[in-house]
Amino acid sequence: MQTTQTLGLYFKTKKEIALEYKLHPNTIATYFQRIGIHTRRRISPKLLEQFYQHYGRPE
Questions:
Q1: Which of 7, 12, 23, 36 could cysteine-pair with 27, CB 3.0–4.6 Å?
Q2: How much is the average pLDDT of 28-48?
Q3: Residue 47 C-alpha from the chain's centroid
Q4: Is the confidence at residue 43, as pLDDT, over 90?
Q5: Rounded distance, CA 12 to CA 43, Å?
Q6: For residue 52, what is the DSSP state?
Q7: Is residue 12 helix, strand or coil?
Q8: pLDDT-based confidence at 27, cuts 50/70/90?
Q9: pLDDT of 1 strictly over 60
Q10: Looking at the whole model, is its pTM more than 0.70?
């Protein structure tokens, strides 16, 4: 299994993630809440990986 460092993950804002998926930041915030991630701060690599596993990586 690859670690988050080898995957090139780093702390990101919801706005940065929204740009990757070409969605509105509020939509991404809703997606995070649906999988139980409630934060107002930057998204850690661990949580980001959990998000990617659930919704897939952006194209």
A1: 23
A2: 94
A3: 7
A4: yes
A5: 5
A6: H
A7: strand
A8: very high
A9: no
A10: yes
**What does each C-alpha distance from 44 to 2, 12, 48, 57 come to in angstroms?**
16, 7, 6, 16
Question: What CA–CA distance (Å, rounded) separates 51 from 7?
Answer: 14
- Alpha helical stretches, state H, the chain: 14-21, 25-34, 45-55
- Of the candidates 21, 18, 11, the one whose C-alpha atom is nearest the C-alpha of residue 41 is 11
Contact 51, 17 (CB under 8 A): yes
Tokens of 2: 């690859």
| 35: its two tokens | 């999988």
Residue type (1 letter), 26: N
Q: Rounded CA gap, 54 and 34, in Å?
A: 10
